[in-house]
Design brief:
Blueprint: E1 6-17, E2 22-32, E3 36-41, E4 47-53, E5 56-57, E6 66-71, E7 74-84, E8 91-93, E9 103-111, E10 116-122, E11 129-130, H1 132-149, H2 156-167, H3 171-190, H4 201-231, E12 238-239, E13 247-255, E14 263-268, H5 269-299, H6 331-334
Parallel strand pairs: 1-9
Antiparallel strand pairs: 1-2, 2-7, 3-6, 4-5, 4-7, 8-14, 9-13, 10-14, 11-12
Helix pairs in contact: 1-2, 2-5, 3-4, 3-5, 4-5
């Protein structure tokens, strides 16, 4: 009966990105109904390092990119390792590979070193998603909305720069800093002028303590962002098919002879470090202005409320009238005689 005599199951292509080259490893299960030869087409510039069949090394090298493998009836595990000496640059694209037979359950894995900064990735439908960019777009919209309120000394570019610095570190820390700025603005507006909010002593003091704690949380978040940005690695919020910032994995269910491709866009990590250093210098100068404004907002209407001291009672003389003459009742109005005190003054001598 006519039909194919060979099929490939469970093929995996792994790409390990290096500084000056990319190492590839192709592994698959080859099923055959008879003994024959199988031709595998690799990139023309592939420098084959090793070929193994069922774990046994084979002394095989490609000719014009075509690697001929011996095939026996049954199932055998084939592994081919090669190196591409071309620098990947900004974009790494997996090479075009012809498996020579129909294949199913194909996996692509791209491993990034610690000195590369992942920007984006593309490949088969089942694979990683870099959520940083849609989250960044949402952050820009929120920054525009907050800046349009003009509630704080921060302008639109300040909100954008603040969000960019926290975008690869921690969104919750950014929310804490934004909440700190907005709450201080509310504090300054509510207790300024004659329309200030009436608040009991205990509530006011509790609010002041809460603002101090919120300030400490915001400052810890700011310094943590600087530390993580300068000494840590950026988080691009990669998810999907078990992927991470350092390992991107795709899955394709079925293909013909052509192995599906994937692309990864990266930059040297040094570019991220330089950007974070510039952001940290900007933040250091901006934070001084924000703290001065925050202190004025915290002191608006007083910084602490104490118990009011009762007014002292006026002492009465023996006659039962206050010592202060200004408190004497109007005798004429009351209809009672008023005693006039006379002073003994010596008469002026005559000349």
């Amino acid at each position: 009966a006519p039909g194919a005599t060979r099929a490939i199951d469970g093929a995996t292509l792994t790409a390990r990105l290096g500084r000056r080259a990319v190492d590839y490893a192709l592994a698959f299960n080859l099923r055959s109904t008879r003994g024959d030869q199988h031709t595998l087409t690799l990139p023309a510039n592939a420098d084959v390092i090793a070929v193994r069949i069922d774990g046994a090394a084979q002394n095989l090298r490609p000719q014009d990119g075509k690697l001929v493998l011996p095939v026996r009836p049954g199932v055998q595990r084939v592994e081919v390792d090669w190196r591409d000496l071309a620098s990947p640059g900004l974009q790494l694209r997996t090479p075009a590979i012809d498996l020579g037979a129909n294949a199913a359950n194909l996996d692509i894995r791209v491993e990034l070193p610690a000195d590369r900064w992942l920007l984006a990735a593309a490949g088969p439908r089942i694979g990683p998603a870099v959520l940083y960019w849609p989250e960044l777009a949402l952050m820009l919209l929120i920054a525009f909305g907050i800046a349009s309120l003009r509630r704080t000394p921060l302008r639109l570019h300040d909100w954008i720069l603040l969000g960019l610095g926290f975008s690869t570190v921690s969104w919750p820390a950014l929310i804490a800093v934004v909440a700190w700025l907005l709450v201080l603005d509310w504090r300054a507006r509510r207790f300024a002028g004659p329309g200030s909010v009436a608040m009991t002593k205990g509530t006011f003091n509790l609010m002041q303590l809460a603002l101090v704690l919120l300030t400490l949380v915001a400052l810890i978040g700011l310094f943590g962002a600087i530390h993580s940005g300068l000494l840590g690695e950026p988080s691009m919020y990669v998810t999907g098919n078990g992927s991470s910032d350092r390992a991107l994995m795709w899955f394709h269910d079925r293909t013909g002879a052509a192995f599906p491709g994937a692309s990864v866009f990266t930059l040297p990590l040094l570019a991220y470090k330089i950007a974070m250093l510039a952001w940290a210098l900007w933040l250091a100068t901006a934070l001084l202005r924000w703290l001065r404004w925050g202190l004025d907002a915290w002191l608006e209407g007083g910084y602490w409320r104490r118990d009011e001291v009762p007014a002292p009672k006026q002492e009465l003389d023996v006659a039962g009238t206050p010592d202060d003459p200004s408190t004497l009742p109007d005798a004429a109005a009351a209809g009672s005689p008023v005693r006039e005190d006379r002073l003994d003054i010596d008469p002026e001598p005559t000349r």
